[in-house]
Amino acid sequence: xxxxxxxxxxxxxxxxxxxxxxxxxxxxxxxxxxxxxxxxxxxxxxxxxxxxxxxxxxxxxxxxxxxxxxxxxxxxxxxxxxxxxxxxxxxxxxxxxxxxxxxxxxxxxxxxxxxxxxxxxxxxxxxxxxxxxxxxxxxxxxxxx
Length: 145
Prior knowledge:
Blueprint: H1 6-12, H2 16-19, H3 41-56, H4 62-66, E1 77-78, E2 81-82, H5 86-89, E3 100-101, E4 106-107, H6 110-116, H7 123-133
Antiparallel strand pairs: 1-2, 3-4
C-alpha cells in the first residue's frame, strides 16, 4: 500500500466503524449533522466537495432509485436533515433496495426489519422516519405512506 495516501484514508474512514460501512463519508451526498470538526480543513473541504458532487447526480430510473443510499442522502431527509441510523447501517440496511419489496411494490414488512436489527431500541420510530423520508415522487415507486 502506498504510504502517501494513508493520511487521507485515515480521515475518510473516520466514521466507518461507527456506521459499519467502508468509506462511509464518501458515500454520502449530505453530511449535515455529522461532526467533522476534528477532521483537518483540507479533508473537510474534499469531503464536502465530493458530497456536493454526489448530490448533483440525478435519479433517472427505478434501478437508480433502488440503488440509492438511504443514509447521508441529500434527497432523503427528515425535517430537512439527512438520516444517520447506526442500528440499520450496522445490519447492512443501507440502500432503498434493502427496504423495498419488489414483488409487492411496497416497503418490506415491519417484522422483516425487526428481525434484522440487533439494536431494537426505538426501531419502530426510526423505521417510520425512514419510510416517511423517502420522496414520493421517485419514478418507479408508487406514492409511499
